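Lay summary

Proteins are chains of building blocks that fold into shapes. Our project writes down both the chain and a compact code for its shape. Here are two examples, one after the other.
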Amino acid sequence: MNDCFTHLFTNNPGFFPCITILFNLQREIGYFLIQVYVPSILVVILSWVSFWINIEASPARVSIGLLTVLTTTTMSAGARAALPRVSYIKALDVWMIVCLVFVFTSLLEYAVVNVISRRVSGRGKRCFSSGSSGVFDCKGRHGCGSRNCRRYSGTPDGKTQAVNIDKFSRQVFPVSFLIFNIIYWVIYSSNYRRATSSSSSSSSS
């Protein structure tokens, strides 16, 4: 028996005996771990495979990028359809948005790498001559006009930069996703324990 005056009828004076029933509803996380979290982690890891593929293999890298983006979008829509529509942002929404950002950034990374790899620097064009003494630079000796010297193009600076960006992405993307997982699960676990403890205390009272 509770005092309904203090809880329900704030404008009417008096004491009204009543019975209060509290329903504590908790959503089990096991289903979403199997159906959403684990598959989305695997899709994000799959998007990183493109960092190890050759830059010139455009069909393979573009296919992986588009496949992971479309798969993440489909999974996000399916997860939202299984949950009630609410006005606030759920923890699952935050997870799917971040996963979509990771796979989309992986696709954009190849676009940047592809553009940079096609840059050919004029400094790569030099003259060389091969003879009995080996290969030497013709500048300062015969000049590029000599018949013994030929012009060649060295490795473009842009391709070297593109390879370095791929190597950098191989480390940054996994580390960033690991940091996000640590922050996400620490916050979610603390909120889940807090809700569980409050529900158990209210039910005991």
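And here is the second example, written the same way.
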Amino acid sequence: MAFWVGDDFDLQPFPPHTTSTIPLLFADISSRYRPLRSQRSDTMTDWGPVFVAVVLFVLFTPGLLFQLPGRSRLIEFGNFQTSGASILVHSILYFAVICILLLGIQVHMYIGS
């Protein structure tokens, strides 16, 4: 079945009489039954994962606060340099800590009306 994007950016069945819109084909038609934006209830948004990801990205940037492994030592602080090995180590640390915080502890911050 063909769909087109309506004025509220919700998928509507493609009207056969209009030719100005380009039909979009979707395998999953469950989004067709979403309520329009005016009918949606106001829900609070969970900003916990976004906040945790941004803070951890800054903390685990190689060379900003620390670098593991360093160029001349095992760990160096604030040298503003990086290497391929430190990028690999920091990305593994980032992945491990973000999985613990988001999946294990389930950090949530609800912001909204």
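What can we say about the second shape? The two ends are 37 Å apart (CA to CA).
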